[in-house]
Specification:
By secondary structure, the chain is an alpha+beta fold. The chain is 52% helix and 16% strand. The protein has twelve helices and eight strands. It has a five-stranded antiparallel sheet with strand order 1-7-2-5-8. The protein has a three-stranded antiparallel sheet with strand order 4-3-6, with no helix packed on it. It has two domains: 152 residues, Jelly Rolls (Sandwich), CATH 2.60.120; 105 residues, Homeodomain-like (Arc Repressor Mutant, subunit A, Orthogonal Bundle).
């Protein structure tokens, strides 16, 4: 049985952006293909086929399944217990990490969705999930949205750290494709305030826009446009929440021709206007 206890303001986290369940089969049925799944198995085992490869996970495993990756032949051992957190694609775009994702970490769990976690790592993640559940239920808390967002951020940073450490110990996808994706992310950090077209970055990397997007999709689970939006929002959110610069100055810094275009961009991709983010600071 799924549950979701969320605030319902139009510009805040929406109902069904964050879902919990203990039913692995339902979570992996295809109904939630637009969600990022975090599965933590505390007892028993499961298996599934992804990209024609068989994966098996035992108790103590943490699993990350990127949205849009179809699974086949999902099997769950009788008596298996797990906690599943599902986050919508909309949530990712409207709540980017202020510290950019490490592309190699993303590549790692895209190709290696299962990690045998240490007891300490599993306990840390389960505590994070309990905190998120608690914050979800505190709808009468005056700072409900803010505390919920902080709890989600803590979890994301913890899980990303765990997978980054694992990635440093095991080799991920190598070759020209991984290097190209890394170079694209490096260019984004340098130029995204001024240019947000796939064509610009593809030209600098001497490839076609279609090829760049395909490589990004293969390496990280998202195309080039997704990462342009992700990095742009991350930097805009940093300006809005950590500085007192005017919206006009921030808009000009990101090379928007008019303040209205800046406002529309932020609203379209995050669900909130720049002013609404600043009010919540």
């Amino acid at each position: 049985m799924y549950f979701c206890l969320m605030a319902t303001k139009e510009y805040d986290i929406q109902v069904q952006d964050i879902l919990f369940t203990e039913d692995i089969l339902e979570a992996c049925s295809g109904t939630y293909n637009d969600y990022l799944l975090h599965i933590f198995i505390t007892q028993g085992s499961m298996s599934f086929v992804m990209d024609d490869k068989l994966y098996q996970a035992q108790a103590g495993s943490g699993i990350i399944l990127i949205e849009g990756k179809p699974l086949r032949d999902v099997r769950v051992e009788k008596g298996t217990k797990a906690v599943v957190l599902m986050k919508s694609r909309r949530y990712h775009l409207s709540h980017p990490l202020r510290t950019p994702h490490n592309i190699r970490g993303l590549t790692y769990y895209y190709d290696n969705p299962i990690m045998q976690m240490s007891v300490q790592d599993m306990e840390l993640c389960l505590r994070d999930l309990d905190d998120i559940k608690c914050r979800l239920s505190q709808t009468d808390h005056f700072y409900h949205q803010e505390t919920l967002e902080r709890s989600m951020e803590n979890f994301v940073y913890d899980i990303f750290y765990i997978y980054s450490v694992c990635n440093s110990q095991q080799s991920s996808k190598g070759g020209r494709e991984a290097l190209l994706a890394q170079q694209f992310i490096d260019l984004l950090q340098q130029h995204v305030r001024q240019v947000r077209t796939v064509e610009f970055y593809a030209d600098k990397l001497f490839v076609t826009p279609k090829y760049l997007s395909r490589i990004c999709q293969q390496s990280t689970g998202h195309n080039a446009s997704y990462w342009i939006i992700h990095f742009t929002l991350a930097q805009i959110m940093e300006e809005l929440t950590s500085t007192d610069r005017t919206l006009t100055d921030i808009s000009n810094d990101f090379n928007f021709p008019y303040l209205s275009h800046f406002t529309r961009y932020v609203k379209q991709h995050s669900g909130k206007t720049p002013s609404e983010y600043r009010i919540k600071r």
